[in-house]
Amino acid sequence: MTRQTTAPIERLRLENTYRSARELVNLMRDGLMTSDLPYQRGDVWTLSQRMELVRSWLSGTPIPSIIINDRWNHDWATANGPVGDEPGYAVIDGRQRLETARMWYDGELSVPASWFPPAEVLNFEETDDGEYVRYSDLSKAEQTSFALTVGLFPFAAAKVGTLAEEAAIYGRVNGGGTPQSAEDMKRASQIAGSR
Q1: Which residues form the domain of 55?
Q2: Is the pLDDT assigned to residue 193 strictly greater than 60?
């Protein structure tokens, strides 16, 4: 295998911004954005990983960017024809995060009620781990605050012309590092628990 190219590498033109997770979930619900792509994994996050995304939002911990391809572009139309009735946005990276956001906003995911101010928790469910709350069980003020100021994703939009180019971006983003081992994560968890 060679890493040589036939021409200098062209810089991707990515529009970087922040977007509301709720807005992105609504694009998927409305059929304007898809994450059902042949290079994507299925739903693989555990319940614990999904809860940690909500915790990261609440604590202000940086979250990786959602990367999409805006297929309403000249290169896509030239290679594939106009978008037509197909979703115009394709999720290159961030499927697990977006699915978790959908589950949170749809009331399919609950987290410890202690993560929120007690006055903002209107209802809760008892679990083996104490009281848990769903998004729908928060006050309207807390729901609005979460949707507009807390539940945000860094967001990058590409405008590439082919599925192969989308898959290449996915590969570079997800294949550039060494995955954390179970031992690495256990060690970090033990140290975090000792604080």
Answers
A1: 15-108+152-170
A2: yes
